[in-house]
Amino acid sequence: MALKIYGIAASRAIRPLWVAEEMGLSYEHIAQRYQGGATHTPEFLALNPNGHIPVLDDDGIIVWESMACALYLARRFGANQSGSIAPHTHSEEAQSLRWTFWTVTELEKDALTVLMHRLAMPAEQRKPELAQAAEKRLATPLRVLEQHLQGHRFMAGERFTVADVTVSSVVNWVRPAAALLASLPHTQAWLQGCLARPAYVRAKAL
Ligand SMILES: N[C@@H](CCC(=O)N[C@@H](CS)C(=O)NCC(=O)O)C(=O)O
Fold first, then answer.
1. Are residues 138 and 96 in the same domain?
2. How far is the CA of 187 from the centre of ligand 1 (A)?
3. What whole-number distance in Å separates Cα of residue 3 and Cα of residue 117?
4. Which residue CA neighbors atom 9 of ligand 1 most closely?
5. 117 CB near ligand 1 (under 6 Å)
6. 59: domain CATH number?
7. The pLDDT value given to residue 1
8. End residue of a domain, out of 68, 84, 100
9. Which pLDDT score, from 0 to 100, does residue 47 have?
C-alpha cells in the first residue's frame, strides 16, 4: 500500500488518522507507540529525526508534524473532489491554515497541560495549580473561537473541513476543564458534533 500512517490513535496521530477516515483513503496503519523511547530507535529516527509520532509515508514522501500531516492529506487527496474535507476555495484554504496555526500557537501547549494535569497523569503526579493557570490563559483564545462559532457552524467555510479536525483535536484536550467549556456553549456544541462523526469514532478505535 502506498500510503502509511505511523502512530497510535491515542496520540497526535489521531489527526491524520481522522482525516484519512473522513476521506475514505486506503492506507496502512502502523500502530507505532511512543512510550518508553519507542520512537527513538535508529529505524524510527530515520523517518522522523525528532523521534515523534505521527509520520506519514506517501510513497516515499515523508511528512511529520501532525497538523502538516492532516493538511497534507486533505490537499493531496481531496483538492479536486467536491464534498471532500479539503479546502476548495482560496478563502477556505486561508481560514484552514489560519485556524490550524492559531491552534498550535495559541492553544496546544496550555490544552495539553489541562489534559495532563486534570486527567492523563497518575493522580499523585498531577498539579492542579498548573491546570488552573493554563485554563486561565486559555480563556482568552477560546473566547475568540467562541465568537467565531457564534456566527459560523464550522471553522472554514460552511461545511466540515480539515480545519475542524485540526482545531477540535486540540480543543478536545480541554474537556477535563468542564467549567471552562461550559462557559463556551457554541464551542461545546461544535466539539460534540466533531467528536460524534463516524470517521472520528473509527479513527479513535484504531
Ligand atoms: N509537534 C509534534 C509533536 C509530536 C509529539 O510530541 N508526539 C508525541 C506523541 S503525541 C511523541 O511522539 N512523543 C514521543 C517522544 O517525544 O519521545 C506534532 O504535532 O506532530
1. yes
2. 26
3. 35
4. 11
5. no
6. 3.40.30.10
7. 62
8. 84
9. 98
Ligand 1 pocket check for 32: Cβ under 6 Å: no
| CATH number of the domain where residue 165 is located | 1.20.1050.10
Residue 96 lies in a domain: yes
What DSSP line would sit under 144-183, residue for residue? HHHHHHHH-SSSSTTS--HHHHHHHHHHGGGTT-HHHHHT
Are 172 and 164 in contact by the 8 Å Cβ rule? The answer is no
Q: pLDDT tens, 163-191?
A: 999 999 999 999 999 999 999 999 999 99
Of 59, 84, 109, the residue that ends a domain is 84
The dihedrals phi and psi of 3, each to the nearest 5 degrees, come to: -105, 125
Ligand 1 pocket, residue 200 CB under 6 Å: no
15 Cβ inside 6 Å of ligand 1? no
Residue with CA closest to ligand 1 atom 5:
52
Mean pLDDT of 103-116: 98
- pLDDT, one tens digit per residue, over 82-97 is 889 999 999 999 999 9
Mean residue pLDDT of the chain comes to: 97
Average pLDDT score over residue span 14-20:
98
Q: Is the CB of 115 under 6 A from ligand 1?
A: no
Domain hosting residue 50, numbered range: 3-84
Q: Has residue 56 been placed in a domain? A: yes
pTM: 0.97
Report the separation in Å between the CA atom of 50 and the middle of ligand 1, taken as the mean of its atom positions. 8
Measured between alpha carbons, how far is 133 from 110 in angstroms, rounded to an integer? 9
